[in-house]
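Notes from hallway chat w/ T.B., transcribed later so I don't forget. T.B. wanted the structure written out for a chain they're using in a teaching module, and asked if we could keep both sequence and structure tokens in one place. Agreed to drop them here.
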Amino acid sequence: MNATTVRQIKNLPSLQAEQLGHWPSSAMRIGAALLIVSLAIGYWSADGMQRLMHVYLLSVSFFLSISLGALFFVVLQHLTGARWSVVLRRIAELLTAAIPVLGLMMLPIVLPMFFGSAALYSWNDEALRQTDALVQGKTPYLNAPFFAFRCLAYFTLWTIIARFYFSRSVAQDRAADALPTEAMRKWSGPSMLAFAGTINFAAFDWLMSLDPHWFSTIFGIYFFAGCAVAVFATLAVASAILQRFGLISQAVTTEHYHDLGKLLFGFTFFWAYIAFSQFLLIWYANIPEETVWFLHRQEHGWQFVGLLLIVGHFFLPFFGLMSRSARRSKRVLLFWAVFMLAMHWIDLYWLIIPSASPESIAVGPLDLLTLVGVGGIWLATILKRAVGTTLVPVGDPYLEESLAFHNV
């Protein structure tokens, strides 16, 4: 990359509200309106509220997984001292901006639990606690006050980490030295340890405890693998969209897409490895409390969703992303990125919805309305945070190395 291009990128202006037009406000209004419509449908349906609570958790978990994957990506780049990814890091930092808003969106899940609601988590049913020995034994951990406290702790910690890295990154754009970058590198180790612990227990709390009789020690890693797949796919899509509108047209090159493709390919394989390990160990041990969770997902049509995940979440992208030429083709990579985001949503659907609808797959308008509703608010939050910042860390001391990055 020549000196003129580097100079142009370093002088990129901050994103102005006028450039986004009505997108942030429109996304927010549409998202809020669709969630209200979803609430009305759930209220007037026979079992709609239970279904609504599950699809709402699904939608929040989907977009939270992207933001958490972005937080992992940001911290990881500083932890490893990676330089190729500098031009992509601001996009990931912006994706983390939605974490506190998604924390607020957990309130409709948490607050009803204090009034005894068991529409989502059966372990919150007082009668079940009295009659089910296994649930009774887990009550010191699975109870509404402690559940709410853990939710607050997770989102508080994630927000602190996300805000720290975003603010330091923006400060580096204006700094005359590398002190902000050094601070981010210094705290990357503790941040990664904190992230690893909290995402593990968050997966236990929000997803695994939907069936309080089931347990898996590697379920948190399974959820994390999905987060990683989701964020690498999202970074590829977001970069392409921003380039389409001429905002980072020369900053992200084929070399960066190639590395995103490699990471997407690698974590797709990692997800499959963890999924198979979890299934094999539980099925081989043949303990009823553990195998029943898989049994519910091997009948009434859910077995076809499982087969779809095996083929669509592993075999197809494995061969589709294996070749170097596929990863270096923006169009091919974008296809697989969008495809993997769809597969990730189906994966979460397979994890969550059988708890509400074990005898029917039943994909309906409520699922789509809730997904777009939560997604609109998520997108609006990210766009509002982007205003006033450059979409590339122009002050990063390793920016030139990232711009000149070339795969061997």
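Follow-up for T.B.: The chain has one domain: 12-403. Might be a good example for the class.
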